[in-house]
Amino acid sequence: MNVNKVRRCALYARLSITKEESVSIIRQLDSCRRYAEARGWEVVGEFIDDGVSATANRPEDRKGWTALLAAGGFDAVVIWKVDRLARRVLDFLHAAEMLQQCSAGLVAVEDPIDMTSPQGRAFAVMLAVFGEMEAEAIRARVRSARAHLIKDGRWAGGGIPYGYLSAANPDGPGRVLVKDPERLQWLTKAVMMALNGATVYGITKWLTDEGAPLPGGRSSKRTPGNVEWNYHTVNRLLRNPILAGMMPRNPGRGRNAKDVDPFAVVRDERGLPVINKSLAVITLDEFTALQDILNSRESPQVRKRRSRETTSPFLSRVASCDTCDVYMCRGTNQKRPVLYCPKCKQTLSRATLDPYLVKRLLAERGGEPLAGVTVQDSWDTVGADDLARREILLTQLESLRIRRGVVGRYFDEERVLLRWLPAGSGGHSDPAGPSKAR
């Protein structure tokens, strides 16, 4: 790209989360506009990705960046800094390559990038390297701060385990965990049942039937909005090292309770687990025995076949998990149809996903030829036959991948990574398995 030949530009801004010290989307765009105005460039579009992590999301998987590439009609893309585009070197290089294919270049307001020469391109890569190093430094600081808090006996934040409360630290600043008298009896009983051979499903049913207070709220009384306990919540509860008074070494919640090492906990200088006996409900030996019991059951302790809810086969072996690269399974969560990943356990409601896919299929591919007619005609002919609908979808689909989203968020279209086959290809389906769409 020769900056002297630039006439039209597009602006791009990204922000993971708004904090007092962060540079807002508005400030980024204002800075980019002033840069373009000073050079006499016409701004033909502004594109943003707000609330999107550059570490967790590649540029090509972001809604704003994808829209920018699809819009075209520009000679350059102006960003505030390199780390607004990517925090991984490979992501940056791939994004720069995509711009080159569009005969456009990249300009950063705060980073003096001139990609017209090999030296300039090398410098841009170095900036991307520093951005990746900064992201890793942030993670290291978070881990260090958390370890310090735990060493002092304080609560490091995050989701509070079931059966516990966060209370003011009586011995100094910060907060500490204490047992929740309202939920502790349910927690202890559930653990004892598991140690005595009860299945996770059996414990789940018992908690629901007995009206045990659900995680998250303070009230033990059920309201019309409350729902029953589910298998994965109970399974995760029984694998939490806090049961033996130990603190997990990693902040946050693992994607799959069975795949997370329950003994990856804070340890002392001798390598022994740091145990807070005031928080323990069982001993370390009992916790070890409990994990052995849970791990010895090879198949999930789901409902008996005769009591399971039937679900539509429309997306059977169609959608795959973008993280684990395996087909997502159909099932139910709290009696609602969902797709779930058998590895990382992410779920997505089919009550919203199925209509969304049907709407896009008919709107974007309805006029495509299929068996002598069109996709729309074929769809109308099969009616409510979900297996036949599935076959029609597969004739048009190149890939359908679901990526993880924010827990508790309503249906998010950005989680659905959908690609159609090239128009006029006639359609095909690949039974061999999912493949990453890049």
Helix share of residues?
25-40%
N→C terminal distance: 25 Å
Sequence of secondary-structure elements: EHEHEHHEHEEHHHHEEEEHEEHHEE
Most strands sheet: 4 strands, parallel
Return the domain count.
3
Q: What topology, given as strand order, has the largest sheet?
A: 2-1-3-4
Q: What does the model show?
A:
It is a single chain. By secondary structure, the protein is of the alpha/beta class. The chain folds into three domains: 3-139, 3-Layer(aba) Sandwich (Rossmann fold), CATH 3.40.50; 164-295, Hect, E3 ligase catalytic domain fold (Alpha-Beta Complex), CATH 3.90.1750; 310-420, no CATH class. The protein is 35% helix and 15% strand. It has helices spanning 25-38, 63-71, 82-85, 89-101, 118-151, 181-195, 200-209, 231-238, 284-295, 350-365, 375-382, 386-396, and strands spanning 8-15, 42-50, 76-79, 105-108, 164-168, 175-179, 320-321, 329-333, 336-340, 347-349, 369-370, 373-374, 397-402, 416-420. Strands 2-1-3-4 form a four-stranded parallel β-sheet, with helices on both faces. A three-stranded mixed β-sheet has the order 7-13-14. The protein has a three-stranded antiparallel β-sheet with strand order 8-9-10. Helix 11 packs antiparallel against helix 12. The longest helix is centred in the first third of the chain and has 34 residues, at 118-151. Residues 218-225, 253-257, 298-303 and 429-433 have low confidence and may be disordered.
